[in-house]
Amino acid sequence: MGVSDEIETRLREAFAPTALEVIDESESHRGHAGYRDGGESHFRVAIRAPGFAGQSRLQRHRAVHAALGADLVGRIHALALDIDG
């Protein structure tokens, strides 16, 4: 399973989102810090889930990072998050 698939699986299991998009933006970072051949280093995630309602931006980001887990986050160089409840 690739990193994109792992991100999607873990977020779906944790939040049952109404909308989820995981975009591998690695290729657009070729030549920059953290880029790896084969990609899967830079991601953009847009997620909408009722569980985020009433949470601050920081709480939402922490919840996503916790759901992904340190093992997966450690393999990602950059993670841009667009989170809404």
Please, could you describe this protein's structure?
There is one protein chain. The protein is of the alpha+beta class and 85 residues long. It has helices spanning 3-15, 57-68, 70-73; strands at 19-24, 42-48, 78-84. Strands 1-2-3 form a three-stranded mixed sheet. It starts with a helix and ends with a strand.
Concise summary:
With 85 residues, this protein is α+β, with helices and mostly antiparallel strands. Helices cover 34% and strands 24% of the residues.
Please, what is the average pLDDT? 89
Q: Reading side by side through the largest sheet, how are the strands ordered? A: 1-2-3
Residue windows where pLDDT falls under 50 for at least 5 positions: none
Global outline: globular
Individual helix count: 3
The description of the largest β-sheet is: 3 strands, mixed
Helix/strand/pairing class, anyone?
A: alpha+beta
Radius of gyration: 13 Å
The count of DSSP E runs of length 2 or more, i.e. the number of strands, is 3
User: How would you spell out the order of helices and strands?
Assistant: HEEHHE
Strand percentage lies at 15-25%
What is the helical fraction, as a range of percent? 25-40%
For the termini, the CA-CA separation is 28 Å
